[in-house]
Amino acid sequence: MLKTIPSKLPDVGSTIFSEMSALALECQAINLGQGFPDYPPSEVLIQAVSNAMLQGHNQYAPMAGLPALREAIASKVQTQHGRSYSVNSEITVTSGASEALMSSLLALAHPGDEVLLIDPAYDLYEPSIRLAGARAVRVPMRPPQENDPAFCIDWNRIEAALTDKTRMLVLNFPHNPTGLTLKSEDLDALETLISKHPILLLSDEAYEHIVFDGQAHLSPVSRPLLAEHTVLISSFGKTFHATGWKVGYCCAPAAVMTEIRKVHQFTVFSVSTPMQAGIAQYLRTADALSGLSGFYQKKRDRLLAGLKETVLRPLRAEGTFFLLVDTAALGDGLEKELALRLTRDVGVASIPVSAFYGDPNHPEANHQLLRLCFAKLDTTLDQALERLQGLENRLAG
Predict the structure, then answer these.
(1) Strand ranges inside 173-285, DSSP E
(2) According to CATH, where is 3.90.1150.10 located in the chain?
(3) Are 283 and 76 in contact (CB under 8 A)?
(4) How many CA atoms, within 13 angstroms, populate the side-chain half-sphere of residue 235?
């Protein structure tokens, strides 16, 4: 008889995203929970991938990625952030941002190391850190206050959490789930921190091309000191409305990238060749990236306008395709319980922000906030908003 297999992640089950999406399907609810669009990628991009298949790009790509795509990434990052990366030794195409994150953490975090996370934090980070044998140290943002209804990074608290065991700080901006973006003063604070504590920065920038109200996305790699310590990670799936394609990338100094590639080559070896070739071709078109922020800002503003007719109070969203709503008008209680009731009784699925904390049931993880995804067709958003009007009466019933 097979012996019981000890689990490396005994407390990990299905993610909140899978759970809420399954419930949405069961209840025929509108899914504003999991972050995927319900509209197709650009027809030009789809044709570019199709052409790549017909042209014979169907066998293994080089382990680090097709040279054409790595060149396009180098050009994009240089234009966007003023940072030059070597196509041969400092850029790797990955199976989505998730694989880039996992490979980076497995390569760079060691048993006994500590890795700092800023709460609320995306749920992939801590399990990856634990699989690397390291320990996650979670440092919360200051939650929304009555006179300042937004999350706020406390850099003094982050520095206070550093020890001689700290290997890395994980950044995620534009931030999922809060929608915060980094400002110049945040990069100043990071430079001060790194000058005193030369740790690594793992910068998850999956929503880098979705920023609003005339802002520019500020990456740590735009500062030379920070770039020397940073692994930049991003996602073409998020950028081009093609989350199922699972194509991302990471950029890092050559010595760091050497270690990441050692894990990457034995994790997936290489990434879908026709997808890489098609994306490389599409990036040559003038409007591949330029219209994304405007496209999503219209959707954000549509959701904001509709929420005025409900008791949900939206928080400021500076980037990503997520919007947080304050549910205080619906009473107290665990955020997840409200999200479940909202799905079952009102027909709109969301994600409780408490799911992005180490202990979702702890009072300090529950700020009466839910995350809504607006990467949806206008008709989908309008149907959801119609259901959310008068929701307090249906929940009370």
Answers:
(1) 200-204, 230-235, 248-251
(2) 16-35+290-396
(3) yes
(4) 28
What are the tokens at 138? 């979670």
Please report where in the chains the tokens 């995306």 appear, as a residue: 122
Q: What is the C-alpha separation between 36 and 21, in angstroms, rounded?
A: 11
**Nearest-angstrom CA–CA distance, 368 and 59:** 49
Whole-model pTM: value is: 0.94
Q: Is 376 helix (H, G, I), strand (E, B) or coil?
A: coil
Task: Note the CATH number of domain 43-282.
Answer: 3.40.640.10
pLDDT tens over the chain, length 397 residues: 677 888 898 888 778 888 888 998 999 999 999 888 889 999 999 999 999 999 999 999 999 999 999 999 999 999 999 999 999 999 999 999 999 999 999 999 999 999 999 999 999 999 999 999 999 999 999 999 888 888 999 999 999 999 999 999 999 999 999 999 999 999 999 999 999 999 999 999 999 999 999 999 999 999 999 999 999 999 999 999 999 999 999 999 999 999 999 999 999 999 999 999 999 999 998 678 988 999 999 999 999 999 999 999 999 999 999 999 999 999 889 999 999 999 999 999 999 999 999 999 999 999 999 999 999 999 999 999 999 998 877 776 5
User: Do residues 287 and 269 lie in contact, with contact meaning Cβ atoms separated by under 8 Å?
Assistant: no
Q: Where in the chain is the domain with CATH 3.40.640.10?
A: 43-282
At the topology level, CATH places domain 16-35+290-396 in: Aspartate Aminotransferase, domain 1 (3.90.1150)
